[in-house]
What we know:
Strand content: 5-15%
Radius of gyration: 22 Å
Order of helices and strands: HHHEHEHEHEHEEEHHHEHEEEHEH
Helix content: 25-40%
Shape: globular
CATH superfamily of the largest domain: Periplasmic binding protein-like II
Number of strands: 12
Structural class: alpha/beta
Amino acid sequence: MKRTLSLFLTTLLIISLAFGAFAGTEEDQWAIDNGLNLDESVEELYEKAKAEGKLVIYTISSRTQKVANAFSEKYPGIAVEVYDISSGTLKEKFVTEYESDIHTVDILHSKEQVGEYTFEIFGEGWLHNYQPDSIFANVPESYKTLTPLMLELNLWFYNTEVYDTSPITSWWDLTKEEWRGRVVFQDAASNDAYCAPLTVMVQHADEMAEDYEKVFGEPIVLADDEPNAGYAFIKRFLANNPIMAKGSDEVIELVGAKGQANPPVGYSSSVKLRKKDEGFAINYSPTTMQVSNGIPALNFISIANKAEHPNAAKLFIKFWMGGEDGKGEGYAPLVSLGSWSVRPENPSAEGNIALNEIPLWEIDFEYIYQNIETVRDYWVAHRN
């Protein structure tokens, strides 16, 4: 009960930060003192940022350097340092520095999938949202717990030499005999991007049970070790001998290699659609997937508490989001197949399926954070 109450109160705090209503802690006061609850003009921020003279960014994307280059051209006088750091290392680096009272970074860009940033970093006040209405007014509230930069998805890929459209329309298809040994996944024991959607599947067990009946024509009968239909899928999926790849590239290589008579399907990052240009016969058809394709991976941007260059950080975030009309050059490097902005004003890559046409479960970071280890343990217990 205490943990649930704590998480609930933390969620209220994060939501209050998104709307500029601060709760009175030392960290909240720093955010107020540095105008994170204000919507200053670009001109006003530029003058303040020039006085700071510098900006430091920790990011998980190599494309951030392109944004920084464009920013430097538009706003001379602000030296931008970009550090491209793997997602697994970035959080640890930031926490280690913060606990050592080192406040080098101004903007931190990473990916939230399991609630760790939400409850462990933002909840402590070590990172802050910055969501001025001139940029974020039209972003759906469900995506504003953190400051959203873009979304990526994991989707089911198929081989286009053999199939004209996806040969599966339900997660339950993957438990059928015809797909035994012909499904490429990654080990959810070590990969949060794969364990998180399975956790949400457990949360939406009623939908999984309904979908089972659509696929097989009869209600699901749960075994004693299947607490609900979500867990039942995990157990039966693993019993069908999926191929465990080491990474998203390997998923695409196994699915999309040309010349296969009976290729597998595979679950991989949507951005890997670009590997078509490398000669792989791949595509996805997420609009035909019943119930859901999974959950989005939320790329977020934040301002570090006690950042030395907060005004440069605010100016950069406005620029990164495409400016007030959303069409500015700051967002241009992010426009690519398999990634989506949740800001309506931002452009989308030609050929991208509209995000609202793709069945997805809503992100419930609190549920994932509280239950992912239980789901991971269940996966490990039933893994071959």
